[in-house]
């Protein structure tokens, strides 16, 4: 059973997502859409693989695709820029 859900995200200044996992999905893809965005602007995707004791960050660079499989703990740091961070999120929903 393959069910997909796609969402466009507009992250306004100071928005973020606290640590969580997407237990309701099998796979997730994030595509970053800002051509002029970099790590100084915040909104960095952070993840921690099972059994690890540290977080790894992925900068939201233009056209970068970030895949996740399973229930990886992750979060997004606060957007510190005065412009929006844009991304497309695609989920393969567990079912």
| Uncertain residue ranges | none
Helical residue percent?
under 10%
What radius of gyration results from the CA coordinates? Answer: 13 Å
Mean pLDDT: 91
- DSSP strand tally: 8
Beta content: over 45%
Annotation field: number of helices? 0
Order of strands side by side in the largest beta sheet? 1-8-3-6
* Largest sheet data: 4 strands, antiparallel
Amino- and carboxy-terminal Cα gap: 6 Å
Task: Summarize the helix and strand pattern as letters.
Answer: EEEEEEEE
Q: Given the helix and strand composition, which structural class is it?
A: mainly beta
Principal-axes geometry comes out as globular
Describe the structure.
- The structure is a single chain.
- By secondary structure, the protein is mostly beta strands.
- 0% of the residues lie in helices and 48% in strands.
- It is built from no helices and eight strands.
- It has strands at residues 3-11, 17-20, 25-32, 45-48, 56-58, 65-69, 73-76, 85-93.
- The strands form two sheets. Strands 1-8-3-6 form a four-stranded antiparallel sheet, with no helix packed on it. It has a four-stranded antiparallel sheet with strand order 2-7-4-5, with no helix packed on it.
- A hairpin with a 7-residue loop joins strand 4 and strand 5.
- The mean pLDDT is 91.
Summarize the structure.
The protein has 95 residues and is mainly β. The chain has no helices and eight strands. The chain starts with a strand and ends with a strand.
